[in-house]
Amino acid sequence: MKSIATIDRHRSGVSLAALAAVILAGSAHAQEASPPAPAAAQEEQEVPSVSDQRAAEIVVTGSRITSSGFNAPTPTTVIGEAQIAANAQPNIFNTIAQLPSLQGSTGAATGTFSTSSGSQGLSSFSLRGLGTIRTLTLLDGQRVVGANVTGVPDISLFPQLLVKRVDVVTGGASASYGSDAVGGVVNFITDTKFEGFKGNVQGGITRYNDNEQVLVQGAWGKSLGRFHVIVSGEYDHEEGVGPGNFGTDLAGSRDWYRASTLVNTGVLDSTNPQYLYRDYAQPYQYAKYGLINAGPLQGIAFDPSGRPYNFNYGSNGVPAGNAAGDVTGCYVGFCVGGDMSGHVGSGTSLQSALKRINGYTRLSYEFADDNELYATVNIAQVKTNNQPNPGAALSNLTVQCANPFVPDLVQAACADAGITSFRYGLSNAILPNIKVFTDRKQYRFVGGAKGKFEAAGTAWNYDAYYEHGVNITDINVRNILLSRRYTAAINAIELDGAIVCADATARANGCQPINIFGAVTPSSAALAYLQPENGPFQHTKQTQDVASVNISGSPFESWAGPVSIAFGGEYRREFYRVNADPYGAGVSSTSPYDDEYPADPLLLADGNNWYAGNYKNGRGKYDVVEGFLEVDLPILDSEGAGRANLNGAARVTRYSTSGTIWSWKVGGTWDTPLDSLRLRAVTSRDVRAPNLSELFAAPTTTTVPNFTDPFTNTQVLILQNTIGNTALKPEVARNTEVGIVLARPSWLPGLSLSFDYYDIKLDDVISSLTAQQIVNLCFQGDPTTCSAFDLNNPNGPNYVNVQAFNLASIKTSGFDIEASYQWQNPLGLDGSLTLRALATHVRKFVTDTGLPGTIPVDTAGNNTGATPDWKWLAIQTYENDHFSLTVQERWFSDGTFGNQYIECRPGSCPVSTVNNPTIDNNHMDGAFYLDIGGSYNVTSQIRAYFKVDNVFDRDPTPSPQTNTGLDVNPSLYDTLGRTYRAGIRFNF
């Protein structure tokens, strides 16, 4: 009876032999992280000879040439089924995101502080730190409808149990796969011939007794003559972590939050640093239950019972009592230490709760040998929720001294000071905390045909399919203020012996006064008025239609071997429509007031009435027609000189919005005469087309009363219209990679090594500008933005259209290293030992905004971002017929808060500038994480397993803010702590 380990390897399609072939085929990273089969099984999987490899049909995602994987020059990392299982994550996304070349991916632990982004819980990949919008994610080589208006898919919606491997192409692939493949491609390959029944049941929890997880997966497949059917289903529930509370209390017993902040001293000369790194930064504009923060009564705070007391400022601060609200002895906006009870940063969720349900079916009919018709249906839903922060901190409220809720002592102090009102700030701890709920539903249908045919004496492969995908996303925000109603509710008067809202119009429309001095909970009627049950919402529908055909074969031979070609075409249509509530979006013919959002004369008709979450209405579409040709030409094949080939591809694409553009690649590989030594290189022109959000952003309009007109040097009133820009062009990248591979040499056949250098130059990067930047750029002589505004409009109001432009650029370079060694019967023990390590070094990551007066900024090694200097992943696995043990190390290097800063000591600082401010400490520790897992074969078909992540419970290094947010970078650091998982897998 074969062990489960052996069965898994056979079903994954990533056996040691296949992996070796992929390695020799130019995918040096493509090595299974799980150990090889035991010796008996290993005999069944001989490594193919060079001639066998030439004939083998190995699909390498980096290329459309499928007749032979040998010739692909683009590096590709392969994560196989066994490694996915060994990592024991509730979401396959977490396993892939650990690869060093993936930097800045988004998941359930990122974006939790956001109310309006719509990206909460969205699991999407970012290669090379270039952002999720520049990484193309495919399912079986096919596009997937976006789960966000930026066009990125949600990995949580994929049929994960059927994934037998994931190919990660760490280089530009636009010529082969089209737009968005600037950073590379992540391709999920499913087992389309699966037979039997398999399942997985897993549970997990952190050492802080939160983020409880339950995962149940099952799949069944069977051949019925020429018919084949596969059905799978998944349920995953992750409870999430957080929120914490006001002050510095995090969820559970976590104690690492220190409100770390870069405080601004305001010093710009050469005596002292401008910025200081400090823990326990205290915002002095508000307190938990209220603080008078300016004027002669500045410094009076209120306890839970509403009694006034003198606020405890940090840094021995003394309120200046002026109209600006300065505090002597403190910094710009912050003191250090003192009363931290009103701080809101720790109240952010550390991980969004996530629940996903996934159903998948594939039906196929083999109408001839090696030819099939197929159809797939993938219906899935992902629900997430999080808390951005507690309360709703406000710091610039005006309170009348005569307000009947103002304590008598403060009213008397007002009279003594000769004032009738004061400025006030509070955390609004008396209000229910804001909650954001996101619901994504995906309906994806694919029908196609694939197989082989003979024509003109040549065997050809073909794959043609049509895909229709629909994604519906609903975002609902609860417990959030209508700002103008709040202003009316806190402005109270006494009328006929009762305390009421001062504004008669507000009273007539249901205004209920509230007491914001102390911890008095508002009445249910007041809360319903301030935070109506029907809060902000956004309903988005996205559709994607793709028709594609790809043909490949080897129609003739050169002097060095068969010449392979691939060609094809694709049509794609992308569409979105978004509808939002009238309080946020404004009243129009498409979003009139209704029963759920009754008309209120106090509110603004053009929207923007919520404290946050003011979603807008919009729609847009574009279509794409493209064709490509790829050629693989052997140029050398001899015993003395080795084997070499050239690989080239070109793709022409017509976008309905921006016209025609070309992408191409040229590369080659050389198997040198030296034992198992290969050289490879590729250079390419890659593109990313503007997405629906950038082209057709839902418009918003705000009034700016004191806008500076540089042409006349006067202040004017303008309407600021935030809109999409249909004139945007595709971003264009030049991507170059050069590498060397040592794959299973005869003197040490278990060893594989690779080194690949990359260099990416991305021009015409789409970036947003402020209204002032748009006007100033035109004034300074750049015509790019001159059509976006009119400050002397005789036919209507002056306006500035705030939109994105192709102005910025990005340059990044670095190298990848991978090494693995597979050792059979180590030290005489039965079984096998596999050692594997992957590392990425980012030499530079330079972003140039393209704006006058700014300088390029290099963020390589900036650990508040996504591109540390070094990042590596190492895995060691021992396995025999009975059990396995895996040890994994994840590490990234120390870095900086920002490379633009100049670190200096008092008395030795240069003059601080906007582009290069001075700072007293610019060091940010990296992190090391140890993970341990193992499995035991209960029977030949049932395996029990466990996994412990972050064994040492390593706390995240603070990522200092310049505001009151959560001081952590979840893109790099583990914010949850030690996590335990265990489960059972079965395969019948």
What does it look like?
The chain has 988 residues and is mostly beta strands. Among the domains are: 4-240, TonB-dependent receptor, plug domain (Ferric Hydroxamate Uptake Protein, Chain A, domain 1, Beta Complex), CATH 2.170.130.10; 281-339 and 394-427 and 483-530, no CATH class; 691-724 and 769-797, no CATH class. The protein is 9% helix and 44% strand. The longest helix has 10 residues, at 408-417. The two termini are 13 Å apart. Residues 1-58 and 67-71 have low confidence and may be disordered.
Concise structural overview:
By secondary structure, this protein is mainly β.
Which key features would you list for this structure?
Ferric Hydroxamate Uptake Protein, Chain A, domain 1; 988 residues; single chain; transport; transmembrane; 9% helix
